[in-house]
Amino acid sequence: MYHSQAMSALRDSPGRYMFTRWPWRSAAYLAFGAVFWWLSLMSSVLVLPLPYWAHALARAERRLVRLAGFRPIPGPPARSGLPGLHELRLWREVAFTLVHILFGLISFMALIITATLIFAGIVAVFVLAGVETSLMREPSGAPALVVLSAVLVIVSPYLFTLLAYGQGALATALLSPRMEELQSQVVSLARANIAELERFESERQRIERDLHDGTQQHLATATMRLGMLELELRDALRPGPEQSSVLESLEAVRRETELGLDTLRDIVHGLRPRTLIDDGLGTALRELARRVPVRITVDAEGVGRFALPVESSLYYIASEAVTNAIKHAQPDHIHIELAESLDRIMLTVSDDGLGGADPVHGTGMVGMYERASLLSGELIFDSPPGGPTRILVDIPRPR
């Protein structure tokens, strides 16, 4: 049974239904079907354009069902284009187009007959009032037309709603995506997102190389030259206030240069640990566990390598989760578990801290949610007051 707001309103209050908005929306929905049915008929006769018209009609119908009180029908990604001949989705769209010919014809006839008879009833009212008109040559039939049009005014809202419900239910049944199609879309989106992340990772690797091989080397050379210059000035200048002033200034410059070099090294290291690139996510997580002042256990046995964007995103999430736990929850122990199956990758970070964390606030949590979303996965956050806190990231494994 397909849910329709129009049918719900009809069942809840049949007497007042005709004064609601739903009869008008149902009539508008049928009017669109009446306009489109002859195009469906022509395309079915010509055969060759039928798949293209069926795909276009299906895209329109997925939105138009809202007029009949249905929820919009989920469709394929906006850039998916015409499905291939081997895809069942295309043939379901063709089947809907062929059935739509019948519904469109019924809608067309119902609207035309109803409008004609109601108009004739209005003319009959004027004839009975004594107004002469050439539109009705036999005044004797005027009372019957008035009664018939009055009946149609009362009945047509319910008739239109039933017709709209039938077409909307059929569209929902034929055009709604199947589970395997949704899974395929998830995998396709994951691939597209990972391809975008790979381009981002390539750019980040270039920045790392430029910082390491360029700026960092220049700063290291400058620091070394400042040290040599300091030794030369000690020998060249006589001891006294002038030498002390020059050496103090030179020492200050050298310290600032060393501080800049240390800061740059921290930035390069913070972009992504080298262990992640060379040895994979499991090893990088174990290295993370050794660096923090809290006992961390890592369970990543039997897990292989993934695409670098996937590993980088999961490492960021794990690192952010550990940082938040140490900063806010005061845990004694943190456990990181990395697992994989044929089609999923799961990362779990749990701690025995204070709990009660709010996932809505904080840029760290927002970044974790965004990274999970970019991988077409989900992040589940559970942190009751008193703990424990558990963060689960579940993403599809791109093939």
What does this structure look like?
- The protein contains 12 helices and 5 strands.
- With 399 residues, it is an alpha+beta fold.
- A hairpin with a 6-residue loop joins strand 4 and strand 5.
- Helix 10 runs parallel beside helix 11.
- The mean pLDDT is 78.
SSE diagram, text form:
Layout: H1 5-12, H2 14-17, H3 22-46, H4 50-64, H5 88-128, H6 142-175, H7 179-236, H8 241-271, H9 274-279, H10 281-291, E1 295-299, H11 308-329, E2 333-340, E3 344-351, H12 363-374, E4 378-382, E5 389-396
Parallel strand pairs: 1-2
Antiparallel strand pairs: 2-3, 3-5, 4-5
First-residue to last-residue Cα separation: 37 Å
Number of strands: 5
Number of helical segments with 4 or more residues: 12
* Average pLDDT, all residues: 78
Instruction: Report the biggest beta sheet as strand number plus sense, adding barrel if it closes.
Output: 5 strands, mixed
The ordered string of helix (H) and strand (E) elements is HHHHHHHHHHEHEEHEE
What fraction strand? 5-15%
Helix content: 55-70%
Could you say which structural class the secondary elements and strand pairing correspond to? alpha+beta
- How much is the radius of gyration in Å? 36 Å
TL;DR of this structure?
The chain is of the alpha+beta class and 399 residues long. It is built from 12 helices and 5 strands.
